[in-house]
Amino acid sequence: MIDQIKSKYHHRKDYVMLVFKGFGMGMANAIPGISGGTIAFLLGIYEDLINSIKSFDLKFVRLLCCLKFREAFSTVAWQFLGAIFFGIATAIIVLSKMISWLLVNQPVLIYSFFFGLILATVPIIAGIIKRWTFPKILAAILSACGAYFFVGLTPLVTPEAAWFLFLCGAIAISTMILPGLSGAFVLVLLGKYQFILDAVNNRDLFSLGILLLGVGVGIVSFVHVLSWLFNKYHDLTVAIITGIIVGSLRKIWPWKEITETIIAGHGKSVAIAEMNIFPSQLNGDVFAALAIMAVGFILAILLNSSSDGKLLSQNNS
């Protein structure tokens, strides 16, 4: 599998495109409610991403411990992951301030775009399953209800200790790679989204280092579970993912009314509970949001149609 990935991406232009795809994942991951895993699906790199991460196994660790560095890195697709994660990191570093501004000043527009984008992925991912049976339909409905409830939870007030930042990284990356669930939103629920965003903007290397350590442990552990599920229960897993994406649309509905706020440690008022509403009147702002939503929907279809290969093969291992 790793040899196939290496042969698939061997030109410089391939890695440039991977950086751009990683940038798209990073942009999505930086926004609460948006899943980078869903973007990976759209861009046709999800299966390669799972298998590349999975390649960092005990054999790789053993070779490293024996100081056989060249042999160790020959067993993993480090070039593929390096390009993807470079794009993700670049997006987060470059766009963190702009995203913070947009979320405060233009939340309807930014969520309208991603609502249209994610909405279009539902039939795309559901289409992977050739035959929908009752158990698969039931699994999709139950997972949609679960995701709908999950994204409506109220954020917690949590500690800023190193152990908790490590835990946040491990949990957030596990959801970040799963289509439909947002790692950024999990950080919101754990009360650490603004803290991490400030750490990026202020170059707080200690906090970011602890978080990244948790990310590394979390992603290597979770990807083996996810790969096993796809290998043993492929269609059922895809059905559950489809449901999760449908349920998560609740979080990124553009029009909301804040129902509860708290005063955060930095003295700012932070919304902790919101209610989805319909626009009170049709005006230029609403039509602009609907137009941006349509752009996101169309872009998702175009990205999927131009991606290399299928979204997720039946033979994922």
Structural features, described:
68% of the residues lie in helices and 5% in strands. With 317 residues, the protein is mainly alpha-helical. The chain has one domain. A two-stranded antiparallel sheet has the order 1-2. A hairpin with a 5-residue loop joins strand 1 (256-263) and strand 2. Helix 2 (12-29) packs antiparallel against helix 3 (36-42) and helix 10 packs parallel to helix 13. Residues 308-317 have low confidence and may be disordered.
List keywords for this structure.
317 residues, two-stranded antiparallel ribbon
How many distinct beta strands? Answer: 2
Give helix and strand order, one letter per element, not per position. HHHHHHHHHHHHHHEEH
Strand order of the largest sheet: 1-2
Overall spatial form: globular
Summarize the structure.
This protein has 15 helices and two strands.
Q: Topology of this protein?
A:
Elements: H1 2-8, H2 12-29, H3 36-42, H4 46-54, H5 58-65, H6 69-74, H7 78-105, H8 107-126, H9 134-150, H10 162-176, H11 183-189, H12 193-201, H13 205-232, H14 234-248, E1 256-263, E2 269-276, H15 284-306
